[in-house]
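Appendix B, record 7
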Amino acid sequence: MSGVQFDPSAIRELAKILRETDLTEIELVEKDSRIRVARQITVQQVATVAAGPAAAAPAAAAPVAAAPEPVSDAAHPGAVTSPMVGVAYLAPEPGAAPFITVGGRVAQGQTVMLIEAMKTFNQIRAPRAGVVTRILIESGSPVEYGEPLLIIE
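Structure tokens (predicted):
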């Protein structure tokens, strides 16, 4: 930063908002200044083993095949991810029919939802044609940049 001074209390307040809303980044732009606060979240996977009658047997047990690791929603080839931080809406206005439904077909370029950011509604369009197999967010929920929103197969 080229000599620009920021109020440390403003940065602390932005960090507090991140924690309270479970967002990973937030940005504030005023005139010629810009503050961006980001945090890294570490996801820890824990494997659980069910103890059953076979687990208690002292005899030699047959090897158990590991279940295939499910593909995370973000890594799914049909995932549509959020291009911005904001609030996602599945319908054009309250009470209106949703843009998409699970099992519905979408065309490439079709509006699938809106994301409100900085009081502006941004159309999110389908990057490919296909069938919506999962909708991963609820209407009115906050979304983050890169967060998977839906799956089109």
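Remarks on this record: The chain has two helices and ten strands. The first strand starts at residue 25 and ends at 30.
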